[in-house]
Design a protein that fits this description.
The complex is a heterodimer. Chain A is an alpha/beta fold. Helix content of chain A is 40%, strand content 18%. In chain A, the strands form 2 sheets. Chain A has a 9-stranded mixed sheet, sandwiched between helices. In chain A, helix 10 links the parallel strand 6 and strand 7. In chain A, helix 1 runs antiparallel to helix 2. In chain B, helix 2 packs across helix 5. The longest helix of chain B has 23 residues. The chains are: A alpha/beta, B alpha/beta. Chains A and B meet through helix 15 of A and helix 2, strand 7 and helix 6 of B.
Amino acid sequence: MRLIGLTVGKATFKGLRLLGRTGSALPGRVVEKVAPAFLPDMLTQLPQGVIVVSGTNGKTTTTKLITKLLESQGLSVLTNPTGSNFVRGIISAVVDKAKWNGKLPYDIAVFEQDEAHAVHFARVVKPRGVLVLNIMRDQMDRFGEIDTTRQLLARLASAATEFVVLNANDERVSTIQPENAKAVWFGHAGDLQKEFLTDDQLYLAEDADFYQAEKPAVLLTGYDDTSVSLKVGDTPHRYQFQLSGGHNALNLAAALAVVYQVIPVTDTAKLAQAILTVEPAFGRGEMITLPSATSLTLQLIKNPGGFSQALRMLELKEYATIGIAINDDYPDGRDVSWLWDVDFSTIRSKVLCGGVRAADMANRLKYDEVKVAGSLDDITNYKKEFDALASKNGGEAILFCTYTAMLKLREMYVGASGGLDEV
Amino acid sequence: MNNNESRKYQLTIVHLYPREMNIYGDTGNRLVLERRAEWRGIDIQVKLVGVNDPIPGETDIIIGGGGQDAGQGKIQDDLQAKAADLYKLADDGVVMLMICGMYQLFGRSFTTHEGEVIKGIGVLPLETVGGDKRMIGNTTYNTPYGELVGYENHSGVTTLDDPKLALGTVTRGDGNNGQDGTEGCRIKNVFGTYSHGPVLVKNPAFADELLRLALIRKYGHEVALKPLDDTVELAAHKAASSRPR
């Protein structure tokens, strides 16, 4: 079964390359059909098993963090390309990386999966460990209700064979009870509560109490723009860390909680080095240098929780130029109502709005009494205007953008790149 | 009218169940009413009314949003307990704007797909039955306050006792039921609609109509609302109505 699937998959890859196509999910789709047991069969070879990362926000970045941290301890890690959540995308990755003799030369796999795909994946492959980051409302025109999301993630947790790492401060997550694995928590200290609101707190912050289910194995105690302070057990650690924002500091706590479950960390210097050098994932706080030598941060935004969290980056660092680009294609969510669930009133400088729904964004800012520098729905013109403004203002620039706006802007800035999501 | 004259006006907005019924940015309707009043020097007081909280005696506008199933489950009994008060306030001309889930519960009943009957409070003469089809997408409809744009997302099929009581006539989308071309409902100053968006943000004339009706009811005479520059709102309106369903 293993070799049939592999041969068919690799042949499909080869055929596609002859046609000049890469990065397709087609090999995965073909293999899924001809050899349904291919994936579990291949992945059981991995001595350290499979880790699945899920939750609403932070999957891509946290998957990358776990990968880099495990690599720092000498493990070779198989992971799925950025944001490619489909099972067949994972099959494609396995086919691509496997040797012709059926060997998968890795110690461990770390896959990000959104809630719907994660359940499908877990039916086929029993993960050794599962990480559930948070449950926020996403685009409900695609994923349904938040309580349905929780049920899906609870099913994923119950498929884990050894451990499940849960967010101690998000009640929807912390109360998940794995059936066959032990639960471990990550979280943040009480005095950081205002910076990490759960979905319920986001909608009625005034009576938000600090919530912590269990004592976290890894506790985030503080962060600034260049470092993160954590407690692992009762031992305090401080790491230099480049990823901006509290959300990434908390993602690091989650990643460390997973790493400590997977292996005993023996080389703490290399761990610290990996934390220092890890770079932002594709479009997730990614830094780009503009021709004017201004540095631009490209920040994907997908939902009210993620956008609210990302806006806190403005408190950590001064950005001379701020842009928000909103598209409403299917991967962005057709309904832009969610922008009204984000509080923009903390923005103190002018914002340049772009994307197909630039006018909606400008209107949203008007009602939070934030000044708008302009509003351009054509993304090419928008980029020109943004660059001119960034060049004029000097300093650092930041662009918050929805998914398809991010892809287009990123392509214009750095050229097309592999690892595109299959949304 | 100068600013000093208008400053004496004050309105109290009651937001019903903000914790439970708040999907798709519906809370934005509150912000729009607040700002559009404040920009004209009208004082606004906002009261958040949740489960077990009484509705304040002084109430000029009541708004309610859409919710998830869990949220609707949490408020049903409490809404029945408030039904008599709400009925009385509606009768008294208090302005109400109910969206999606709250719109359905302001009708007489909601019969789920599984046949369970959830009692509404019957302020609006309509009934809703859970359907097979998700009615989802950008929508436009004509009303006495101009063309409104919104984003609908429901499977409930709502039928008005009398189609003439509709808030508007659908020009794009499904509206109340995907059949008779009606969208929303209005009785006295009670408005219900399936439109998220939120509905007031890109339909400034409709937002102003709610403020106007509330001021007339409270002060017994027409209060001229200073015109605002709605260029941005109307650009957003245009963008929404030009997008694919």
